[in-house]
Structure formats: C-alpha cells, structure tokens
Design brief:
22 helices, 4 strands, 5% strand, Zincin-like, metalloendopeptidase activity, 71% helix, 465 residues, mainly alpha
Length: 465
C-alpha cells in the first residue's frame, strides 16, 4: 500500500502545474466539449447519406422486402436528424451554463437551502447534496420535452411506442426518486471517504465503488427492476425447456428465468442475464418471444451464455476498475487547486477550500476528450467479445457433443436478422460512425463472421468442455 501511495504522490508532483500555472480551464472545457460534439455531428453527417440507399446489402437482400427496408431507412434518417439537433442543443445549453457561472450559482443556492435549516458552509457534505439536487433538477428540465418528443412523436411515428403519457410521467418521477434515494447515500459515502482518507483516498474509494457495483447487482432485480417492469416466470413450454437444458449442460448457475413485459413501453426486443457468480438471472423480452421461434431465441441465449463462459462481464468489470483508478489517481491535483475553481466563477472563499463534489464535477469535464477516446477503445473490446460469443454459439455442437445444436450458428443468424427487421435497425453503417457509437458489430459483419466460424468448425476437430 505504501508503494501505491508513493507512486500516486509522484504522479501528483507531475501534475503540480494545475495549482501553479495560469490556465484558462473554462476555455479548455468549452473547446473540448464543443470539439467532441462537432465530431459527433460530423459522424452523423457521414452516416446520413446511407439512409438514402434504396437496396439493402446483398447478404440481406433476401430478408428485407422493399417496404420493410424503406421503413428502416426512414426510421434511421429520423433518428439521425433528432440526434443531430438534440446533440447540438444540449451542448449549447451546457456551454451556456458553464459560461455564465451556473455551477457556482448552484453551489451558492445549495448553501442557502441548508442555511434555512440551520446548517452553515462547514457542513460540506450536506451542502454538496443540496448542490447536486439543484444541479440535477434544473439540468433535467431541458431533456423532458426532448424525451417526450422522442417517445410520442419519433417512436410513435414508426410504430414502436407503447408508453402512455401517464406511464411516461410515472417513469420519470420514479427515476428521480431512485436517483435521490440511491445517489444521496452513495454521494455522502463518497465524500465522507474522501475527507476521512485525506490524500490517500484512492484505494478506499476504489473499494467503495466496487462495493456499490456489487450491491446494485443484488438490488436491481429485486427492488429496482420491478418498479418499472413486471418480471414473470417464463411459462412452461419448449423455450423454457430449451433454456434450462442449455444452462444445465453449460453448468450455468441459473436461478431465475423471467419473461419481462418490454412491450409495455416499446416494440423493441432483447434478452440478457445478470447476477452474482453463483446466482444468475436470465430475462427475455416478451417481444422477442413473440417475434422469434423458440429455437432462434435459444440461439440468442446461447450467445449470451457465451459471454458468461468467456467471463466477458468480469473482464469488463476489471477494465472499468482500471479506468476508475486512472480517473481517481489524477483527481487530487485538481482537488487542491483553488485557481482551478476560480476559472469557473467560484468565489475566492469557496475556491480557497475546494468542495470535493465541485472539484470532481469540473475535473470530469476536463476529461471529455480522454473519455471519448476511451469510449472508442471500449467499443472495440466489446465488439471482440460479441464475436467471441457468436463463435461460442456456433461451436456448441462440438463443445457439448450435441448434434441437435449443429445449426446453432444458422439459428443465431436468423434470430439476428429477425431482430433487425422487427426493430427497423440500420443495416448500412459508416465504419467510423460505428467505431465511435456501436458496442456491437454490424449485422452484415456478424453474419459474415458466423459463416466463417461455421466453415472453420466444419474443418476442425471437436472441442469438448
């Protein structure tokens, strides 16, 4: 531990310029955030002409009739227009808030709120909670009409919306309540640990964040998910039998198998698993069950179990921990730099002893360009995992010595095509746009890879578990 703290102290020495050099941090954040937004707009403009194509890729020509393809192109075009406008609008609002001292104002308002209850500025955690609440509520307001438009105009226009106005409002209020109920205690713990541990807070915060992630895995299916959707045991039948048999053969620790009423809000389909290493839950959307045959849903689940078999969630968790560690290791230099806060219109009194939550929020803005690059790298890793899971499904016949699974790759391909057709997903995708935005390979890439996996499997010997 001492070696770790020694290395972290050396890093802070390298970053000492943050507290000494005259840097226009506000200009830096404005330039970086606008740079990322304009780059994202450029990617949309690269992608947009592809929505004018009148024919799907040759490999998909037999699966998309002209009317379905036309609808998918129109849906993609409308979403691209919406994303372009909302991206620029949100950036303009964020830029104005930053330029005109909104964050300093929100901190002062938080102080006035707690002052009404007899608390002074020495109660930093209490003021931080009030500051965060003000920030959250006011910054959420511009997104409400945009979200309503997306749900009731864009999604409605293309036949996907199932959300009623009352459900929309209820979901929003539930989300706010959860944000305060979970975010408040977590933020308090985060700030307490930072103050308690002093400059040696990095490993302690890492432990706190990891514990929080594990707790969320536990409470999500039992407390949070039921607030928004009804999870019912998957009915007895072919699909349940297939799923339980597959899980048993792979020794997947299946505890619960659910059908979720995803159609309550949307016509989009999905399936996923979650849980602790010794207790897993599989959730299948009712829309997926309705739109695909049991053997095709089984192939989708085989892909998902491929993620489990290759420990992809664990690997992503490790990557995320390394990412978090890097961020926390860099943070102290900005926490102890009064002029850093002064650049964002905070008073000399506040800047003299920078509040942790304020310094961390502004520090995250500094990381905007780095986070964009990290996002591309994570997408690359995620796509490798997706191909590995697809290959796992193709190899199940050999892994389990089960001849009835010899066509699993074909079934998965049909299921992916069905999902894309029913969801009106875009099938023409610019490579750079995909690299930046997509954590999954495109449909044509996955189909070609499935063919390659199948060909290699046919040419290789058996691989048993």
């Amino acid at each position: 531990m001492d070696l770790l703290h020694t290395q972290l102290a050396a890093l802070q020495q390298q970053l000492s310029f943050v507290a000494t050099d005259a840097i226009d941090w506000k200009f830096y954040v404005q330039a970086c955030s606008w740079g990322v937004t304009l780059f994202e707009s450029y990617l949309l403009l690269r992608q947009y002409p592809l929505y004018s194509k009148t024919e799907p890729p040759a490999v998909l020509a037999a699966h998309f009739d002209k009317e379905v393809f036309r609808k998918s192109q129109l849906y993609g075009k409308d979403k691209a227009q919406f994303s372009l406008i909302t991206g620029l609008l949100k950036q303009a609002i964020d830029s104005a808030m930053l330029q005109y001292g909104f964050y300093a104002w929100a901190w002062d308002v938080g102080g006035k709120i707690i002052g009404r209850f007899g608390y002074g500025s020495e109660y930093e955690i209490t003021q931080s909670l009030a500051f965060t609440a003000v920030l959250f509520l006011i910054s959420s307001l511009p997104g409400i009409p945009l979200s309503a438009y997306q749900t009731f105009v864009l999604e409605e226009k293309h036949g996907f919306n199932k959300t009623t106005p009352s459900l929309f409002v209820t979901d929003m209020l539930k989300g706010w309540v959860l944000a305060f109920a979970i975010g408040g205690p977590f933020l308090s713990a985060f700030l307490y640990v930072t103050k308690w541990a002093g400059d040696r807070f990095v490993p302690w915060l890492m432990a706190l964040l990891f514990s929080f992630q594990i707790i969320m895995v536990i409470i999500f299916p039992t407390i949070i998910q039921p607030l928004f959707n009804k999870l019912s045991p998957l009915p007895v039948g072919d699909l349940r039998s297939r799923t339980e048999a597959l899980a048993a053969k792979l020794k997947f620790p299946l505890k619960y198998l659910y059908e979720i009423d995803g159609s309550k809000r949307s016509s989009h389909s999905n399936a996923y698993f979650f849980g602790l290493p010794w207790s897993k839950h599989i959730v299948i959307f009712d829309t997926l069950i309705k739109e695909s045959k049991p053997e095709e849903v089984e192939a989708v689940l085989a892909h998902e179990l491929g993620h489990w078999y290759h420990m992809h969630p664990t690997k992503l968790l490790c990557i995320s921990q390394a990412h978090i560690f890097t961020i926390l290791a860099l943070f102290p230099a900005f926490l102890h730099a009064p002029q850093f806060l002064r650049a964002f219109d905070f008073s000399k009194t506040v800047s003299a002893r920078p509040p942790t939550i304020v310094a961390f929020l502004l520090f995250q803005m500094i990381l905007t360009p780095m986070e964009a690059v990290v996002g591309i790298a994570l997408n690359f890793v995620s796509r490798q995992f997706e191909w590995e899971a697809d290959r796992f499904a193709c190899e199940l016949q050999d892994r389990l010595n089960a001849s009835e699974m010899k066509d699993m790759g074909d079934r998965l391909g049909r299921a992916l095509i069905t999902l894309h057709v029913k969801n009106l997903s875009t099938v023409w995708v610019d490579w750079l746009y995909s690299a930046y935005h997509h954590s999954h390979p495109t449909l044509t890439e996955r189909l070609k890879a499935l063919e390659t996996f199948q060909a290699k499997r046919d040419g290789n010997g058996k691989k048993e578990l």
